[in-house]
Amino acid sequence: MGRSKKLLVCTAAIALMFISACATGGTGTTTGFEEWELVEPERIPPEVAYQHVRSGDALLVCAYDDEETCGRLRLPDSMTLYQFERNLMYIPVDKEIIFYCA
Q: Could you read off the pLDDT of 53-68 as tens digits, one per residue?
């Protein structure tokens, strides 16, 4: 596969990380995630991903949870999955997230 990395755009990343089987605690309130629909990630060419990241429209995240593997495959301007998870609450919900793996 060479330098060409598989890039995944996952606009539903936040939903995937938060959907759970939590009860509402009897309050009658909802978590807000009940209406979210899981979608297949969209694949985009590396050039398009690069443009989105460089323009500030997207975040680039190494999809490996193993820090050693991610360290070997880390691309410029990317963050590790751990960094992404730690900062998730600060990422705007409309921010494009691009996950990549080799």
A: 999 999 999 999 888 9
The three state secondary structure string of 35-98 is CCCCCCCEECCHHHHHHHHHCCCEEEEECCCCHHHHHHHCCCCEECHHHHHHHHHHCCCCCEEE
Q: Are the CB atoms for 81 and 46 separated by under 8 Å?
A: no
Parallel, antiparallel, or unpaired for β 96-101 and 6-9? Answer: antiparallel
Distance CA(36)–CA(97), nearest Å, equals 17
Map out the domains of the chain as residue ranges.
6-21+38-101
The continuous run of DSSP H or E covering 6 comes out as strand 6-9
pLDDT single digits (tens) 70-93: 989 999 999 999 999 999 999 999
User: Any bridge partners for residue 101, and if so which?
Assistant: 6
